[in-house]
Structure formats: structure tokens, C-alpha cells
Amino acid sequence: MTDIVLWGLLLTAALGFWRVVVGPTIPDRIVAADTLSTLLTTFIVLLGLRFRNAVFLDIALAFAVLSFADVLIMAKYFEHGELHR
Questions:
Q1: Is the pLDDT of residue 84 over 70?
Q2: Any coiled-coil ranges, and where (predicted)?
């Protein structure tokens, strides 16, 4: 059952990546990148459950924090055009 969910998440992540690349506007791409990071965090957690290894949970937590900061940086950059203000 976990394998089916993992494949479904990979398919959904591929569609999200397509939206990041092709997205018609910058806000669409930022939202797609945020969604993609959430999907990949969930994927890493499910891999941890699948392999019964708690290290994956630590990696998922670090990835979630970094992806949250990444989305904030992207939003600020595209809103103001620079980051040092």
C-alpha cells in the first residue's frame, strides 16, 4: 500500500514540477514550488515509514524548514526585485 502512495506522490510531484517550469505567472510558480516541497517532504516521511528508519524523519524536518525559508525568499525577491531591503 505504501508503494502505491509513493508512486502517486511522485506522479503528483512531476505535475507540480511541470507547473513550476511552465507556469504562466510568477506567483503560480511560487505556489507550485511550495506545493512541490510539501509533496517531497511527505514523500521523504513515507520513505522513512517504508524502510523503518527514523533518519528520514530528521531529513524531512530539515527539508521542510529550508523549503519554507526558500518560498519566503522567492516571494520577497519577486515582489521587490532584490533581497537586501
A1: no
A2: none
In a domain, residue 85? The reply is no
Terminus-to-terminus CA distance in the chain, angstroms?
48
Average pLDDT score over residue span 45-68: 94
Report whether 47 contacts 7 (CB < 8 A).
no
Q: In which element (H, E) is residue 12 found?
A: helix 2-22
Contact between residue 44 and residue 56 where contact means Cβ atoms under 8 Å apart: yes
Q: How many domains are contained in the chain?
A: 1
The amino acid present at 67, given as its one-letter code, is S
- The predicted model scores a pTM of 0.84
Measure Cα distances from 60 to 14, 57, 70, 71 in Å: 19, 5, 15, 16
Q: Residue 67 and residue 20: Cα distance in Å, rounded?
A: 14
C-beta separation of 36 from 17 below 8 A:
yes
